[in-house]
Amino acid sequence: MIEKAYHDRDGQIWMDGDFIDWRETKVHVLTHSLHYGSAVFEGNRAYNGKIFRLEDHTNRLIQSAKLMGYEIPYTAEQINKACIDTLAKSGLDDAYMRPVAWRGSEMMGVASKNNKIHLAIACWFWGSYFEDKMKGIRLCIADWKRPAPDTIPCKSKGAGLYMICTLSKDAAAAKGYDDALMYDYKGRVAECTGAHIFFIRGNEIHTPTCDNLLDGITHDTVLKLAAKRGYKIFKRDIYPSEMEHFDECFVTGTAAEVTPVREIEGRHYTPGDVCHALAEDYDNLVRGKISL
Fold first, then answer.
1. Which residues pair with 241 in a beta bridge?
2. Three-state DSSP state, 78
3. Across all residues in the chain, what is the average pLDDT?
4. 137-146 pLDDT, tens per residue?
5. How far apart are alpha carbons 189 and 106 in whole angstroms?
6. CATH code reported for the domain at 12-124
7. How far, CA to CA in Å, does 85 sit from each of 81, 88, 89, 103, 114?
8. Which of 96, 68, 55, 237 has its CA nearest to residue 161?
């Protein structure tokens, strides 16, 4: 089944304080962020009518904009309410939500200070990010590397910073893989195109702590769930030569949730007890069946 185009859907989108018909939420072709990549966004997810860790996502959105040099003209409380209202307007219990802020079209050029800051929030149903995800996904190694932290505002969830992620994701699909694993500027294991990565050996969980990775909210949640189960957690630099010595592997993200990995370009893993336990714990947590 071909998914309906995102610009041609029923419903309403919250934009600059009002609900607007989905098809009418348009911006000008000379919008500054379209040309210079300074939009910032979040991926929120709702389960059973409640947005998971909404406040944390909103605070990260606001901080992302500050790192890009602008202030979103709404308080965290106003953004939280707009997200909740947007979810209610959609009529969905389980949904994906995209708050996005951007510089407008008042001036064109690299300079940006006279552009109005806009905010919109869209909400739609989105199932699993990966098909048959519990079987485990296959990753290739990306050609592109995560840049050094003194070359980009890497702690901002900025639209322009995803350019190499799109290139890597598309290249992975062309090779028959589900996603790509990216190394960083030092050659360390970094992350996938939109998800953090974990490795498992026995009851040990290892995850990269590269200084150029976004502070992941799902990543943080899974670390807390793992600690609650008593697993030994190692947040450290991980190098490619180590990957063949782990038993299990999985990735995490708001869209990916907890998704096992069965291959990283010739290195094979068997999704086992740890992957399945944390995936179940995460699902139970977001649906309010357990708490941290």
1. none
2. helix
3. 96
4. 999 999 999 9
5. 41
6. 3.30.470.10
7. 6, 5, 6, 24, 30
8. 68
Residue 76: per-residue pLDDT: 98
Q: How far apart are CA 8 and CA 29, in angstroms?
A: 18
The structure tokens listed for 184 are 């960083």
* Distances from the Cα of 72 to the Cα of 29, 64, 287, angstroms: 21, 10, 30
Give Cα 171 to chain centroid, integer Å: 19
Among candidate residues 122, 102, 121, 125, the one with its CA nearest the CA of residue 112: 102
CA-nearest of 58, 45, 41, 22 to 95 is 45
Mean pLDDT, 10 residues at a time, over the chain (292 residues)? 84 98 96 97 98 98 98 98 98 97 96 96 90 87 97 97 98 98 97 98 95 96 98 98 98 96 97 96 97 93
Asked whether the CA dihedral 66, 236, 290, 252 is positive or negative, the reply is positive
Question: Positive or negative CA dihedral for 111, 117, 123, 124?
Answer: negative
The model's pLDDT over 32-44, given as tens digits with 9 standing for 90+, comes to: 999 999 999 999 9
Domain residue spans of the chain? 12-124, 133-286
> Which CATH number fits the domain 133-286, given the four candidates 3.40.50.150, 3.40.50.1010, 3.30.70.2860, 3.20.10.10?
3.20.10.10
